[in-house]
Amino acid sequence: MRVSRWGDSLAVRLPRELVERMRLAEGDEVDVMAVERRAIGITKSDTEEDTLAKLRALQRPAPPSFRWSRDEANER
User: Fold this and answer.
1) Residues contacting residue 30 through CB under 8 Å, at least 6 positions apart
2) d(CA 74, CA 76)
3) CA distance linking residue 51 with residue 57, whole number of Å
4) For a disulfide at 46, which of 27, 50, 65, 69, Cβ 3.0-4.6 Å?
5) Is the pLDDT of residue 62 over 90?
6) Would you give the end-to-end CA distance of the chain in angstroms?
7) HEC letters along the chain
8) Domain limits of the chain?
């Protein structure tokens, strides 16, 4: 890949094979990070729906005896 100037920034074009493998589409958010001195890693950012689904998967039901009291919580 070649680094090109894009306004005041630099840019690279992603090869089609990489785009297809990562299932990227125009408008997707990606995270780019330095992995080593001369290497980068690219990950596709989660959508809001993906993030919410992951959070919902972490939820556990409260025990039957659990009661949430705003007043009790504020007393602590």
Assistant:
1) 24, 42, 43, 44, 45
2) 5
3) 10
4) 50
5) no
6) 58
7) CCCEEECCEEECCCCHHHHHHHCCCCCCCEEEEEEECCEEEEEECCCHHHHHHHHHHHCCCCCCCCCCCHHHHHHC
8) 4-59
Residue among 43, 35, 39 nearest 18 (CA): 43
Residue 26: count other Cβ atoms within 10 Å of its Cβ.
5
The per-residue pLDDT for 71 is 86
Q: What is the pTM of this model?
A: 0.53
CA 23 to chain centre: 14
Structure tokens at 74: 């504020």
19 pLDDT above the threshold of 90: yes
